[in-house]
Amino acid sequence: MIIGIPKEIKPQENRVGCIPSNVRQLVEHGHQVIVQRNAGVGSGIPDAQYVDAGATIVATAEELWGTADLIWKVKEPIAIEYPLIRKDQILYTYLHLAPDLRQTEALLASGCIAVAYETVEVDGRLPLLMPMSEVAGRLAVQAGARCLETPMGGGGVLLGGVPGVPSGKVMIIGGGIVGKNACAMAVGLGADVTMLDINVDTLRWYDDNYHGRVKTLYSSQHNVEASLAQADLLVGAVLVAGAKAPHLVRRKHLSLMKAGAAIVDVAVDQGGCVETTHATTHADPTYIIDKVVHYGVANMPGAVARTSTFALNNATLRYGLMLADLGWKDAVAQDAGLRKGLNVCQGDVTYRAVADAHGLPCRMI
């Protein structure tokens, strides 16, 4: 099989889908790998390392997409790439289709086979989403701390406080992988942290592991509203696998928050769990509504591209090799977890949450 590794062109996206060591394994399995020129430069990987691993460098996206049987990416294709996607071509990447009808329609029209990292599922876990959730959770607190600085429009609050001045208050909605990593960072900075979740066992984990250092609350509307009134920083860490995130914080709730408070909505890729969130970029990451600073960068891990690229590749190699070695039909037939990653296939939506989000029929495979 010919595997193509394109250069990411989403704004400020410097990750790359496949690193040289993984290219080497693909080549050792008998596959041909083509890499677009400078695809890895943003992650500190020069073309020469790909050549040493056995890949061929191609000059243009058109040549790469026009040749490859399998496209191995990081982020979803954007509009300029839609015409490049070919019938029966395998697309292996993050997709986040539930809030993105335009992309969904483009993939359906192309006739491609689209496998989404974020819905591959094993024993209730999302192994290809997990490494980027870890990165995003840690970055969320860094970004939130910056948003609270006065030059950013924030209230001038230092999360860790200083002797004689109280720490900033951080509320995190969602205790999964993003929430765990955001919590660890916030606690490490010395912030006053409250975790909200609807799973009591999850709350019990935080109580047991932080020994009361983290306050835990059931995520009822009452508790969300009460916490918003106290919070300096809200981290939205809600995930419903493959589906559009529910709006747990509405526009009306902003009036409960302090002037200069900040919101970092990590769920923005899935539409956001805060109603006033919209996607932003690293070049222009924030905006202010009702005196609350919003941070909605949709590819947060791209800010630490080298760390993110290697962490992602540790997870994606296994399933990428399966797709290349077996072809998509046999791969999804043999691995139930990978089958859940199949979102679009030859003109049909094949993942229920995506179909429901857009009112489309779903063909289960």
Structural commentary:
The chain has 365 residues and is α/β, with parallel strands linked by helices. It has two domains: 2-120 and 305-358, Rossmann fold, CATH 3.40.50.720; 134-298, Rossmann fold (3-Layer(aba) Sandwich), CATH 3.40.50.720. Helices cover 35% and strands 17% of the residues. It contains eleven helices and 15 strands. The protein has helices at 20-28, 47-53, 61-67, 101-110, 130-147, 177-189, 200-210, 221-230, 305-334, 336-339, 352-358; strands spanning 2-5, 32-36, 56-58, 70-72, 90-93, 113-116, 169-173, 192-197, 214-218, 233-236, 262-265, 286-289, 292-295, 342-345, 348-349. The chain has an eight-stranded mixed β-sheet, sandwiched between helices. Strands 9-8-7-10-11-13-12 form a seven-stranded mixed β-sheet, with helices on both faces. Strand 7 (169-173), helix 6 (177-189) and strand 8 form a beta-alpha-beta unit. Helix 5 (130-147) runs parallel beside helix 6 (177-189). The chain is globular, with a radius of gyration of 21 Å. The model has no long low-confidence stretch (mean pLDDT 96).
List descriptors:
single chain; 365 residues; alpha/beta; Rossmann fold; 2 domains; 8-stranded mixed sheet; 7-stranded mixed sheet; 15 strands; 35% helix
